[in-house]
Design a protein that fits this description.
single chain; about 400 residues; alpha/beta; four-stranded mixed beta sheet; 17 strands; binds pyridoxal-5'-phosphate
């Protein structure tokens, strides 16, 4: 049955993804089922999206209730879910103002516009620069692609935004060397995701924060993948004793509905985008905001952060054990339930394919990293099951 749907899809869908050869039909907890009812333990969570797992009854009921009331009204009016979701995001982050988008990429676009407008407001200049990081990932639209430090993604689409410079992640001196009077923002993922799971070192991030304060540059932290509890903190930067001026969110913030946000600290909120400067038709509609609002409630009710810390510690120990045991596993990196295993001497793709046959969904990051970003509700028993299936795939 898988094959006929794959054929149909390939006939009609533009081939920009090399998809795995399964057709998924439904999910329950931390398991996905394909159309043949084969079960898969899911350690990818739809790329770090499904933090609450699949078919969480309270979450799905909240969405059903909202569908019956109202799904969309445009941003010309207020709605109850919008007010509640924005307040909860503001409270969880301790930041000042929220703009809801439909995706992570759009949140990044908003962050870039915020930085440009902030600097324009100060000096009227139109040639401001942004410092981003090599091996970063911020999205595929032209603005987000411009700050994505990946030559392969960028090359066919030039010219991109001017004034973007790339520093080496975790190398403060390389950032300092790029700062000029025109720098309006320094932008990075608190934990690099697609690039291969690299957490920022404390001195690096604190050093960038100090630099930003000193030069009145906006610090933009992309928390689209590493935020919403994945590292054991609601936002990964909360472990570093610093606060960004702009934060981008998406992925797990809606746990399966398309929503993102950029969130501004007081300085950026007061000195940048004003009425008429930015907009979106769908962004933050009642349907997606009902999801966001329920997600924050359920994080608390289900003690998600505590679970990430406990099970994350367990997963970390077990993955370290694998690195000790297998020569081709050369390093573990990550925080909480955002982990990577570096593979050398054999293709990661083969391991992922074998895992899929064994009923385990894992994904890759960079060119040689196995990525573990499971639902944040997983248990130690799920980790044990994952390890058995993974080792069976080596
Ligand atoms: C996924 C991701 C994005 C892009 O988000 P989309 O919702 O796919 O547009 C941007 N930044 C990071 C760090 C991501 O992981």
């Amino acid at each position: 049955m898988n094959n006929s749907y794959i054929e149909k899809a390939e006939e009609a869908i533009l081939h920009t993804y090399n998809r795995y050869q399964i057709v998924l039909d439904r999910g329950e907890g931390v398991y996905l089922y394909d159309v043949n009812q084969k079960a898969y333990l899911d350690f990818a969570a739809g790329i770090a999206v499904q933090s609450l797992g699949y078919n969480n009854k309270e979450y799905t009921q909240a969405l059903k209730d909202q569908i019956d009331k109202l799904t969309h009204i445009s941003n010309l009016y207020y709605s109850v879910p919008m007010a509640e979701a924005a307040q909860k995001l503001k409270e969880a982050s301790g930041m000042s103002k929220v703009f809801f988008t439909n995706s992570g990429t759009e949140a990044v676009e908003g962050a870039i516009k915020t930085a440009r407008k902030y600097a324009y407001g100060k000096d009227g200049g139109t040639d401001h620069e942004i410092i981003a990081m090599k091996h970063s990932f911020h999205g595929r639209s032209l603005g987000a692609l411009s700050v994505t430090g990946n030559e392969k993604y960028q090359a066919p689409f030039r010219p991109l935004l001017p004034g973007i410079k790339f520093a080496d992640y975790n190398d403060l001196e390389s950032v300092k060397a790029l700062v000029t009077d025109k720098t309006c923002a320094i932008m990075l993922e608190t934990v690099q995701g697609e690039g291969g799971i690299y957490p920022a070192e404390k001195e690096f991030l604190q050093g960038i924060k100090a630099l930003c304060e000193e030069r009145d540059i906006l610090l933009i932290l992309d928390e689209i993948q590493c935020g919403m509890g994945r590292t054991g903190y609601m936002f990964a930067w909360q472990e570093y004793g610093i606060e960004p001026d702009v934060m981008t969110c998406a992925k797990a913030i809606g746990c399966g509905v398309p929503v993102g946000a950029f969130v501004l600290g007081r300085k950026a909120a007061e000195g940048s985008l004003a009425a008429g400067d930015h907009g979106t038709t769908y962004g933050g509609n009642p349907f997606v905001c009902a999801a966001v609002s329920k997600v924050f409630d359920l994080y608390e009710k289900e003690h998600i952060l505590e679970n990430v810390r406990q099970v994350g510690t367990y997963l970390t120990e077990k993955l370290d054990g694998l690195v000790d045991k297998y020569d081709f596993l050369t390093e573990r990196r990550g925080k909480g339930l955002m982990q990577g295993l570096e593979v050398n001497g054999r293709p990661v793709g083969g391991i992922v394919d074998r895992a899929l046959e064994n009923g385990l969904i894992i994904i890759t990051a960079g060119s040689n990293v196995l990525r573990f970003v499971p639902p944040l509700i997983i248990t130690k028993e799920n980790v044990d099951e994952m390890l058995e299936k993974l080792e069976g795939s080596f």
